[in-house]
Design brief:
The chain is about 65% helix and about 0% strand. By secondary structure, it is mainly alpha-helical.
């Protein structure tokens, strides 16, 4: 079993492979530590849902849920990722629901391996992605109704983009996140997802999902204009990661099987600066929204 230091290094390495800066060094240490605690929990729950033996997954997810209950009941958690959340939950006044939804998303993964429509996929994103954005807003003390709705669009977009990147990996795990009706409409047999090269039909389906994600991202990115300070910097980085990854997908003509599609660092930094500087400032195009 990994030591605490080894576990932290492993989570930091995973964070570096994400499409967006999880906890940028541009942020104060306290914010970075809170964001990494949240990321460590979400990643650990995902690992249970993906990497453990199928017979163990539901049991281990139940252990995470019970440990969260201990945390919110004022008892000492037993699991390392939940223990690491304790200070963040207390200092940032984060409600329990978003964490429970992340666990539920991984329960769903054990039973649902196909999604018929894009709306069905967005329903899954409400469990697997949107809670993370809500937690992040709590970390910065910027959680409000209007912002939460915009955050949901950004997070759903980022989740769909990741599904576009990971078509082959997801298929090997027995899951298909590309909508079934779109695969049928494009004449793309399910076997194309296991091929060594991306077929024209599969490229068409991935391009369709990427375009939908781009529209969601454009709708949600106005959240940046409602924020200032470190919250603005962090959220602009997440939005920029989405734009940079969409650009990377376009540049490879949606070849998601023949190569690993990841945004280049320079492209990400340029997108980050562009989003941060061009979305307007509070009081400019979007009146600053009240915090909760």
């Amino acid at each position: 079993m990994l030591s605490q230091r080894g576990h932290s290094r492993e989570q930091a390495e995973k964070a570096r492979r994400e499409n967006f800066p999880v906890a940028s060094r541009l942020l104060p240490r306290r914010h970075r530590e809170h964001l990494m605690a949240v990321y460590g929990f979400a990643r650990s729950v995902d690992d249970v849902g993906d990497d453990e033996r199928p017979d163990d997954r539901l049991r281990l997810l139940a252990e995470f849920e019970a440990d969260l209950a201990r945390l919110y009941d004022g008892q000492a958690p037993r699991l390392r990722p939940v223990r690491a959340l304790a200070r963040t939950v207390q200092e940032c006044s984060i409600p329990a629901e978003p964490f429970h939804l992340l666990i539920e998303a991984n329960r769903v993964d054990q039973a649902v391996t196909r999604y018929e429509t894009f709306d069905d996929l967005l329903g899954y994103c409400e469990l697997s992605a949107n809670p993370v954005g809500r937690i992040v807003l709590h970390v910065f003390g910027e959680a409000s109704g209007p912002r939460l709705a915009l955050s949901d669009r950004v997070c759903s977009a980022l989740q769909v983009i990741e599904h576009c990147q990971d078509v082959g990996e997801d298929y090997r795990r027995g899951r298909v996140y590309l909508p079934q009706e779109d695969l049928r409409r494009a004449g793309c047999p399910i076997g194309h997802l296991a091929a060594a090269a991306t077929s024209p039909q599969l490229r068409e389906v991935v391009a369709m999902q990427a375009a939908r994600a781009g529209r969601l991202l454009a709708e949600g990115q106005t959240i940046v204009a409602s924020l200032s300070g470190f919250a603005r910097t962090a959220v602009a980085g997440y939005v920029a990661g989405g734009h940079a990854t969409l650009a990377a997908l376009r540049s490879t003509h949606y070849d998601v099987l023949g190569r690993a599609v990841r945004p280049r660092r320079l492209r990400l930094l340029r997108a980050w600066a562009r989003v941060h500087m061009t979305m307007g400032w509070p009081g400019a195009r979007l009146q600053r929204l009240p915090s909760a």
